[in-house]
């Protein structure tokens, strides 16, 4: 007699998510471009080849005015810059290309200094599309980095990550498949423990549980001041880990509406901590999507992802499809360092080689399909994490905000979402609207601290810039109520301190802090005497 286990699959578990795949897609390769797309020059070379092969009118074609280009983070940032700065000089049929406006202006000053500038943007024919596979990977990395101390370190120890090296491996998400499983363990274990008091409450009242009722129950019975552990965990599970799972399911099923919702749900993960590249990508993608013409947006949505296997629950975005194709190509290359000629030969014969492979497997009665579902095998791990939460009494008692292991967390962490939104608005104003950087904006360069120690490290005066120290001095001066003390310190600052270097500024900052403390003490004594 064999043991029978219940099979849980990420595909069957989310069957309620609508799949919008229209059928199986075949991928056709063109000749490779032999360059590393890590510079403006090499990326521009790739873009011109794409434009020519897609019959873009800018490059003499007759078929298309525009197309989509999907890539991961680094090429995305380079292409975004090229879209803004790369130009073609159209004065007197010059038609020379320049990667920056600075290069173009030098050319214009030399060739026609007295004439009006005439140029067109070279790469205005493309819409950028961030690869959802890499977007998901970076979301998970952001989530792990934020929640490592509060929850994930203790959970990973329970899962067998005990050495420092193994913990670092888990924290930095070195293996995306393992990171995805760990995320699911955290999400399912936490959610089952969070919902338990509500279900018990419904059983007592003989009422039917619902998602809306669950959220209302937590809002009524658990305040953020009395139960900060539960409140913060609710935010991380209900908004962020659920949002990442929604993103995966939306990609798998080509569900554009769920995709946009999940990207909006999780946006603060990039902005709350230090992820500058994906902060810009998240905002640029959202703004570009809103500004697309309706027919372009519809086409964009129709191909949020594709399925190359024919399985309507196994969609991938083009970045991961291309990575799979790259692995496939490498399987046909002989051992050793391949030459450009070998790469080109394999790319040109890829379809023929794959057909031969499929026919051979069919004759032998084998299958290379990846379309079947598979067991996640995480039930025991989810149970172990639930036991850990109960054993530590982490959610059941009012307490200060701490990690599962008992480490104190920063008092501002519970307001992570609001703080991250403030940082996001700051980037919109400065990076996209071009508004000048105000002195009070320097605080936005710091990530939201997770622990008091991290806050002290981030906001230590020795780690502050000169502009930040100057702003802090002015802020403290404005709080001094004694007019004589205020006039003295302000005059001293303007005449003898402001331009004397960082060391003098730090020393003066400590002096005005002492003056403010003395001023507040005198005010308090006066109030007590009056009573």
Tell me about this structure.
The structure is a single chain. With 531 residues, the chain is mainly alpha-helical. Among the domains are: 132-277 and 378-452, no CATH class; 333-363, no CATH class; 460-531. It contains 22 helices and 5 strands. The protein has helices at residues 10-13, 40-53, 73-85, 101-111, 132-158, 164-171, 176-205, 211-221, 228-252, 256-265, 268-272, 276-291, 294-302, 318-331, 340-348, 350-363, 379-391, 416-432, 452-459, 466-477, 483-497, 502-530, and strands spanning 67-71, 87-89, 97-98, 119-121, 126-130. The strands form 2 sheets. Strands 3-2-4 form a 3-stranded antiparallel β-sheet. The chain starts with 9 loop residues before the first helix and ends with a helix. Residues 1-8 have low confidence and may be disordered.
Give short descriptive properties of this protein.
single chain; mainly alpha; 3% strand; globular; disordered N terminus; two-stranded parallel sheet; 531 residues; 3-stranded antiparallel β-sheet
């Amino acid at each position: 007699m064999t043991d029978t286990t219940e099979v849980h699959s990420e595909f069957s578990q989310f069957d309620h998510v609508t799949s919008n795949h229209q059928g199986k897609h075949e991928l056709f390769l063109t000749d490779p471009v032999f360059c590393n797309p890590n510079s403006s020059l090499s990326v521009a070379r790739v873009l011109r080849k794409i434009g020519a092969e897609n019959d873009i009118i800018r490059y003499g074609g007759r078929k298309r005015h525009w197309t989509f280009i999907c890539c991961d983070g680094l090429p995305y940032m380079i292409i975004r810059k090229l879209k803004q700065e790369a130009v073609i000089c159209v004065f007197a049929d010059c038609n020379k290309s320049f990667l920056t406006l600075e290069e173009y202006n030098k050319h214009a000053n030399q060739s026609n200094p007295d004439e009006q500038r005439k140029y067109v943007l070279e790469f205005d024919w493309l819409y950028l599309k961030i690869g959802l596979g890499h977007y998901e990977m970076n979301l998970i990395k952001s989530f792990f980095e934020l929640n490592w101390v509060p929850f994930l370190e203790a959970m990973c120890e329970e899962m067998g990550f005990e050495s420092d090296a193994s913990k670092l491996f888990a924290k930095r998400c070195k293996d995306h498949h393992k990171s995805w499983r760990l995320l699911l363990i955290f999400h399912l274990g936490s959610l089952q423990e969070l919902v338990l008091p509500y279900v018990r409450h419904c059983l007592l009242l003989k009422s039917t549980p619902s998602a809306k009722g669950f959220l209302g129950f937590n809002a009524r019975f658990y305040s953020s001041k009395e139960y900060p552990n539960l409140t913060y965990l609710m935010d991380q599970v209900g908004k962020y880990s659920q949002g990442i799972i929604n993103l995966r399911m939306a990609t798998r099923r080509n569900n554009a509406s769920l995709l946009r919702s999940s990207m909006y749900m999780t946006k603060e993960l990039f902005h709350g901590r230090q992820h500058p590249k994906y902060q810009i990508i998240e905002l640029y993608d959202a703004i570009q999507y809103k500004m697309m013409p309706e027919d372009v947006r519809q086409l964009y949505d129709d191909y949020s992802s594709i399925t190359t296997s024919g399985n309507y629950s196994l969609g991938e975005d083009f970045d991961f499809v291309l990575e799979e194709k790259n692995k496939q190509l490498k399987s046909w290359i002989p051992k050793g360092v391949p030459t450009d000629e070998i790469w080109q030969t394999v790319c040109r014969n890829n379809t023929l080689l794959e057909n031969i492979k499929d026919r051979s497997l069919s004759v032998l009665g084998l299958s290379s399909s990846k379309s079947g579902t598979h067991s996640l095998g995480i039930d025991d791990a989810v149970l172990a994490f639930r036991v850990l939460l109960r054993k530590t009494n982490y959610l059941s008692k009012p307490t200060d905000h701490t990690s599962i292991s008992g480490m104190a967390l920063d008092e501002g962490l519970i307001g992570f979402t609001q703080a991250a939104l403030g940082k996001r608005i700051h980037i919109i104003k400065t990076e996209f609207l071009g508004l000048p950087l105000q002195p009070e904006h320097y605080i936005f360069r710091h990530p939201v601290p997770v622990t008091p120690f991290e806050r002290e490290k981030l906001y230590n005066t020795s780690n502050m810039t000169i502009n930040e120290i100057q702003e802090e001095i002015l802020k403290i001066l404005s709080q001094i109520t004694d007019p004589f003390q205020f006039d003295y310190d302000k005059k001293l600052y303007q005449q003898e301190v402001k331009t004397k270097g960082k060391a003098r500024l730090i020393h003066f900052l400590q002096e005005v802090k002492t003056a403010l403390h003395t001023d507040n003490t005198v005010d308090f004594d006066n109030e007590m005497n009056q009573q």
